[in-house]
Amino acid sequence: MTPAQFIEKRRPDWQELDGILQQIEYHRDASISARLFLRFARLYRSACTDLSLADTWRLPRDMREYLEGLVSRGHSNLYSYPRNRMRDIADFFLHTVPRIVYRDTYVRICVLAFYIPAVISGFLAYHSDEFAKATLGEATMIAFEEMHSSHETQSNEMITSAGFYVQHNTTLALIAFGMGILGGVGSLFAILTNAIFLGAVLGFLLTTPSAMNIINWIFAHAPFELTGLVLSAGAGLRIGFSMIAPGGRERMRALREEAYNSIPIISAAVLLIVLAAPIEAFLGPVSEPPMLYVKYSTGLFCLLLVIFYFIVLGNIRHREHNGYMRLLAAKKIQEPMMEFGEKLKRN
Questions:
Q1: d(CA 80, CA 84)
Q2: How far are the Cα atoms of 5, 180, 249, 259 from residue 243, in angstroms, in the given order?
């Protein structure tokens, strides 16, 4: 039997298990019949066995991730205790979100597609006025230089600038996510063009008398805002690419599944952009001590928090999850073998 034949043979049971899980998850307050619960338990055990055989059958990565998701959801619902909403939310943001973002290939692609071109664009704009003009246009260069020309613009104009940036970056995040429907290429295009533009703006402004003003302006909120933008593009890329490479699934089914898998990424992106807005509005205009020290401390804290949450904690949760899945799969293989051994002893 080939891997494709194995998938085709087992797919009906996986789809049935997925349907039962959706029924349980979306109607938690309603009771389910004993017959349906028994069927759910049997399908869950079968899915555990299938997952343990994933390497043997050399299943595609997206299919293994799909099975991992089924088994994880099945275990949570089969052995669940009375639901605690606050505990569920805490578990989602402290376990699920960092793990999913850390391991997501599409997010990693978007990180590279944003920061590498942004650094290159900034470097070129800093060293070449012609590059800055070709990328931004003279009118845009003048507008940005005037916007950040003086420490004395202080409350009204800088608050107006904050409103511009909040709206601008929220729009960019929505575009980066929404354009993913174009096979994922749209998200890559959006993140790449914005990387070049923002890098060129920063590189150009660093050559003007406004250099310290722009650094002071972006320092506090940039870690949250830029990370939210990249995550939005990563979610859009994951959803859109499923239409090009569904991985043996029907395209609409692949689209639904990847949209579901992207929920933790989208949630993190929305939260970061929402948190960045008040930081930008209230700390962006600050240019004098002692609040300037508060701004720098906030920016440093936000940067370290992003690194810790998505890389350090994400790696920890990823390792915990992999160890748990291996243990669970091994347990489901050992149980039938032990039962068979007991039968042999009795005979």
A1: 11
A2: 22, 10, 10, 11
The crossing angle, in degrees rounded to 10, of helices 251-261 and 61-78 is: 60
What Cα–Cα distance (Å) separates residue 259 from each residue in 43, 263, 312? 24, 7, 25
Exposure class string for 24-42: b at 16+ Cβ within 10 A, else e: beeeeeeeeeeeeeeebee
Compute the distance between CA of residue 148 and CA of residue 157 in angstroms, rounded to an integer: 10
At 123 the three-state DSSP class reads: helix
Output the pTM of the full model. Answer: 0.74
Measured distance CA(179)–CA(185) in Å, rounded: 8
177-201 pLDDT per residue, tens: 999 988 899 999 999 999 999 999 9
Q: Is the peptide bond before 290 cis (omega within 30 degrees of 0)?
A: yes
HSE, CB side, 13 Å, CA atoms: give it for residue 317.
20
Segments making up each domain of the chain, as ranges: 3-83, 103-323
Cα 70 to chain centroid, rounded: 19
Contact 260, 65 (CB under 8 A): no
Q: Hey, what are 37's tokens? A: 């619960």
Residue with tokens 């870690």: 223
The answer to whether 194 and 176 have CB atoms below 8 angstroms apart is: yes
**Other C-beta atoms lying within 10 Å of the C-beta of residue 83:** 9
- DSSP-H helix ranges across 33-180: 34-52, 61-78, 85-91, 97-103, 105-127, 129-136, 138-147, 155-178
Give the three-state DSSP class for 148.
Answer: coil
Quick: pLDDT tens for 301-326: 999 999 999 999 999 998 887 776 66
Give the 3-state secondary structure of residue 53: coil
> Looking at this protein, which amino acid is placed at residue 235?
A
